[in-house]
TrEMBL record:
Pfam families: AIM24 (PF01987). This is AIM24 family protein. PANTHER family: ALTERED INHERITANCE OF MITOCHONDRIA PROTEIN 24, MITOCHONDRIAL. It comes from the Bacteria. Gene3D superfamilies: Mitochondrial biogenesis AIM24. It comes from Streptomyces griseoviridis.
Length: 210
């Protein structure tokens, strides 16, 4: 149902079913399609209230019909994630599309810090189906295991899935060492068993402008 055309365009083939997608991300379609804006990130009134309280912003539309619909957003790289009853956590700005049957929500992820300004919450996607997430450059998928925890710069973090514990720790980044830090220095530490998606973005990454 989900397939990539190149690395920056998502094609979704529909036969009367529906998908949730970032509002305004449709770039073309054939066949018969209907579009409907969903409130609260696709979670209805409860989701709308939760997202307003938490500051986690995600505007979503439902696309339903027969044919093919193509999605893209600001020439971002698109990554497909298959869910088999598990849960994916993704920054709201990195969400592109998901099967309509997947449940979306807002999850508390721990104390972050003020330098990113992206709050204490993130978007969750759960169930059986496919999701498409975006990254600034081709995303790298890193494995976390009991023997090998992972520390990620918050500017490079895109999403994670699996049985992972997430914590926020202060520390020194390359940007701080070079005198280019914009505030407190902290990283995201993952422990457990799962996958973490990171982007090779030069903005606010652990390597700064090196």
């Amino acid at each position: 149902m989900f397939r990539l055309q190149g690395s920056k365009v998502l094609a979704v083939d529909m036969t009367g079913d529906a998908v949730k997608a970032k509002n305004g991300s449709m770039v073309a379609y054939d066949g018969q399609m209907s579009f409907r804006k969903l409130s609260g990130g696709g979670e209805g009134l409860r989701g709308m209230v939760t997202r307003r309280l938490t500051g986690e912003q995600m505007t979503v539309m439902e696309v339903k019909g027969h044919g093919t619909c193509w999605f893209a957003d600001r020439a971002s790289e698109i990554n497909l994630v298959a869910l088999h009853g598990d849960k994916l956590y993704v920054e709201a700005g990195n969400f592109l599309a998901a099967d309509a049957g997947l449940r979306t929500g807002t999850e508390f992820t721990g104390l972050r810090g003020a330098s990113q300004g992206n709050g204490l919450f993130t978007t969750s996607i759960e169930g059986h189906g496919q999701a498409a997430i975006m990254s600034d450059g081709p995303a790298v998928v890193l494995r976390v295991s009991a023997r090998y925890p992972l520390t990620v710069d918050p500017g490079a973090y895109v999403a994670h899935q699996g049985n992972l514990r997430q914590s926020f720790q202060s520390g020194v980044t390359f940007r701080t060492m070079l005198g280019e830090g914009g505030g407190e220095a902290f990283q995201i530490r993952f422990e457990g068993d799962g996958l973490v998606y990171v982007q090779p973005s030069e903005r606010n990454t652990i390597a700064g402008d090196v």
